[in-house]
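Model it.
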Amino acid sequence: MTFYSCFDSQGTVIARCQTFQEIEVLRKMGRPIAEVRAMKKQEAVVCSLTGSPAEFNLDY
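Modeled.
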């Protein structure tokens, strides 16, 4: 399972998503996503242990 971190223009993480469709939804909602990077396996484990990636996207 691949998770993605979304960053704004200052390099701050603004969301963590599991699919590119989720990223596109955030862009349509107006989130200033400047960069998207795939998370390393050890980072993604934290997402899967803490719950759904949607929990990190407070705008949902």
